[in-house]
Amino acid sequence: MGFVPLDPRSLKYTDAAMMAVYESADFQRRALTNSLAGATVDPDAYQAIYFTGGHGVMGIFLMTLIYNAWP
Question: What share of the chain is helix, strand, coil (3-state, %, to 5)?
């Protein structure tokens, strides 16, 4: 899917351990620069999914799920 932006204001809620993950070159490359399309993800291979964005984006995710469930 591509690049995932981070809201710099959200980073004020992180602690040192979380910042270490965000600052990791591996995380930046795999999670933020080259994100996967949902259809290509094997859910059994993951423990969690990192949805980006705030409350507005979460509403869009929900509406997309509802829309895609309609016959």
Answer: 60, 5, 35
Task: Establish if 23 belongs to a structural domain.
Answer: yes
Q: Is the pTM of this model over 0.70?
A: no
For the segment 20-53, what is each residue's pLDDT rounded down to a tens digit? 998 999 999 888 898 777 788 888 898 887 766 6
Question: CA gyration radius for the chain?
Answer: 14
Q: Which domain holds residue 53?
A: 8-69
**Residue 25 near residue 31, CB atoms below 8 Å:** no
What is the total count of domains within the chain?
1
Find tokens 């291979």 and name the residue.
45
* Assigned domain for 1 exists: no
Q: Is 57 helix (H, G, I), strand (E, B) or coil?
A: helix
> Encoding tokens for residue 36?
């996967």
